Amino acid sequence: MKTGSTYSKDFGYYLSLPKVDLHRHLEGSLRLRTLLEVSRSLGLGLPVTTSRLRELVQVGDDEHFTFENFLSKFKTLRQFYRSPEIIARVTREAIADAAADGVRYLELRFTPSALCQAAGFQMEEVVDWVIESTREAESSLGIMVRLIISANRHEGPLLAEQMAQIAVDRIDKGIVGFDLAGNEAHYSALPFAGIFRDAHQAGLRLTAHAGEWGGAQNVREVIEHLGVERIGHGVRVLEDPDVVQLARETGVTFEVCITSNYQSGAIPIHSVHPLKRMMSMGLNTTINTDDPSISQIALSDEYQRACEDLGLSLAGLRERVLAAAQAAFLTKQERQRLVASLAKEFPLG
After folding, report:
1. Side-chain half-sphere CA neighbours of 292 within 13 A
2. In the prediction, which pLDDT does 1 show?
3. CA Rg value for the chain
4. Residue 4 lies in a domain
5. 212 included as an active-site residue
6. Domain-located, residue 2
């Protein structure tokens, strides 16, 4: 839960709701106390006090809300993945935190190149460690989890191609999707088109970050050239009516992350977040966390914010949760069971 927050009297209601999170990065979900433990035990040369380390790995209210500042948190976080045990631990904890927040279905995405950098692991190794830890957590916590491998635009197509193949080789082990993330302000999605086409043909589902730090044209690119069925964020799609129409016609699902969009500079203030405008224009939107530790939030916070700050009705929230279940990278039968379970559990009003 968000550190230092004062919740309204109704927060318990949002906490009690069953949830679906389609857009959550493992690397943005590390517990601060775990980072402190690791930093102290390994002597990483990082601050060993809570307040000083928080400045490096979490977004504070007094910071500049820009994508450069947001991405800078990951540079520090990449220093922590020093052993299989640490990677396994942070994976289990990320899933445990989601389960404690009422998430019934989680798609956890991660970037193998980020996890293997500090200790020189092979990407195949870290992927297998995440898979194994996910299976253990899923079984013990009663939460359904699927994994998405995410490549960064700024790390180039060659590395992305390697990660896509690793994902394809592990489709039968819980890897369901492939994602493109990273600095969309300066790097086009076009060089990755062939990789995405091949990944899809091999059986992976496709999503990509776009329309967050770049304009509506980036949304068009990933729909037309990458063939995605979901888009991470996408809030700037509204800048171009033609792209809105394209998104509506193709039925692409938007993985909206309210707090992250504010902290990364995609929107100027919380109260003008375009979630409801996107919905009113017929765009299929869902509500997700992105990087709960970096943003110091849980999905309950985002549901509360959507309703109490942006004016989404509880009935509208229920629809978005069911829409997220419908957009899950599951088989048709699995989606049907998930939707039915959530519809039964989620209160009507």
Report:
1. 29
2. 41
3. 19
4. no
5. yes
6. no
Question: 107, 212, 221, 255: which is the annotated catalytic residue?
Answer: 212
Structure tokens at 204: 């992976």
- Residue 197, C-beta contacts closer than 8 angstroms, at least 6 positions apart: 227
Provide the Cα torsion 260, 264, 267, 272; round to 10°: 40
Give the count of domains, the chain: 1
The model carries a pTM of: 0.94
**pLDDT tens by residue, 4-17:** 344 444 789 999 99
pLDDT of residue 270: 65
Range of the domain at 337: 11-345
Q: Is residue 77 part of a domain?
A: yes
**pLDDT for res 108:** 98
The CATH number given to whatever domain includes residue 103 is: 3.20.20.140
* Residue 330 DSSP label: S
Determine the residue type at 248.
Answer: R
Which DSSP string corresponds to 243-311?
Answer: HHHHHHHHTPEEEE-HHHHHHTTSSSSGGG--HHHHHHTT-EEEE--B-HHHHT--HHHHHHHHHHTT-
Is residue 331 domain-resident?
yes
Q: Which residues of the chain have pLDDT under 50?
A: 1-9
What is the C-alpha separation between 167 and 15, in angstroms, rounded?
A: 33
